[in-house]
Design a protein that fits this description.
The chain is α+β, with helices and mostly antiparallel strands. It has one domain. The chain is about 25% helix and about 35% strand. The chain contains 2 helices and 6 strands. It has a 4-stranded antiparallel sheet with strand order 3-4-5-6, covered by helices on one side. A two-stranded antiparallel sheet has the order 1-2. The radius of gyration is 12 Å and the shape is flat.
Length: about 70
Amino acid sequence: MGSIQQTKDWLKTQEDGIYMKSHKAAIIRSSDPFGLFGSYKDASGVEYNYINGKIESIDYEGETVRYKQT
């Protein structure tokens, strides 16, 4: 993708309020050196939360599934 600055610039174009526009952008946003957390919400309202580049939880209609980090 290029330099860190190019990636940071690209990430800014991928922001949609508190969510990112894609899983890819949320994973990168949640990875060092770009941040620690990233979230993506799809058209169905399913929210995917990433921490440190890995899926942490999925939220849908008030239900949350958490994933054990290894």
